[in-house]
Specification:
heterodimer, A: mainly beta, four-stranded antiparallel sheet, B: mainly beta, seven-stranded mixed sheet, 11 strands, 0% helix
């Protein structure tokens, strides 16, 4: 299985900040990488797919980049609604795997 | 609007069985792949199993292979997960998820989950 490793596990930030979360795959996954946002008690929400494509309805302050094994999720001008846990997910093959998650907390 | 409503969770003893259901509405169910994704309490997400739109293709994580079976009834717009030989580590919130238009390998819409607790 392809292992996905996110860093950091927790990130403290303030409204208006720019935050970056990284995700590393144990082997090349080309651009087959997605990002999800999950708020407490809620189901995850797809934000980005194919490393950098924004899902419909997702604010443009979210962006993704990377290919191969190294990927980033960037949130510009962090908003109160963005404090949540973020997961990366590879879909290079049928056996999809998630990263362990990054919690974005209020500083 | 896409709606996915899971049911069937509960408390079961180790070695027991449960059958989860996911009632879908708001989209053409038979046109989309469907999946189950679980989340243990306080932990991250784990893909469990997926099924093709027609039901003739399935894949499961190694952690559940041979114990869990995914199926669907397109006439009832319902997805199922038959869970046998349950273990304590199967304790989790089980989400039903609909594939995206872009690719069947993504989880575009999710239900609110049904909680499975395996304990004696």
């Amino acid at each position: 299985d392809i292992q996905m490793t996110q860093s950091p596990s927790t990130l403290s930030a303030s409204v208006g900040d720019r935050v970056t979360i990284t995700c590393r795959a144990s082997q090349s996954i080309s651009m087959w990488l997605a990002w999800y946002q999950q708020k407490p008690g809620k189901a995850p929400k797809l934000l980005i797919y194919k490393a950098s494509s924004l899902e419909s309805g997702v604010p443009s302050r979210f962006s993704g980049s990377g290919s191969g094994t190294d990927f980033t999720l960037t949130i510009n001008n962090l908003q109160p609604d963005d404090f949540a846990t973020y997961y990366c997910q590879q879909y290079n093959n049928y056996f999809r795997t998630f990263g362990q998650g990054t919690k974005v907390e209020i500083k | 609007e896409v709606q996915l409503l899971e049911s069937g969770g509960g408390l079961e003893q180790p070695g027991g069985s449960l059958r989860l259901s996911c009632a879908a509405s708001g989209f053409t169910f038979s046109s989309y792949g469907m999946s189950w994704v679980r989340q243990a309490p306080g932990k991250g997400l784990e893909w469990v199993s997926s099924i093709s739109p027609s039901g003739d293709g399935t894949n499961s994580a190694d952690s559940v292979k041979g114990r869990f079976t995914i199926s669907r009834d397109n006439s009832k717009n319902t997805l199922y997960l038959q869970m046998n030989s349950l273990r304590a580590e199967d304790t989790a919130l089980y989400y039903c998820a609909k594939a995206t238009v872009v690719t069947p390998f993504l989880f575009g819409s999710w239900g609110q989950g049904t909680l499975v607790t395996v304990s004696s």
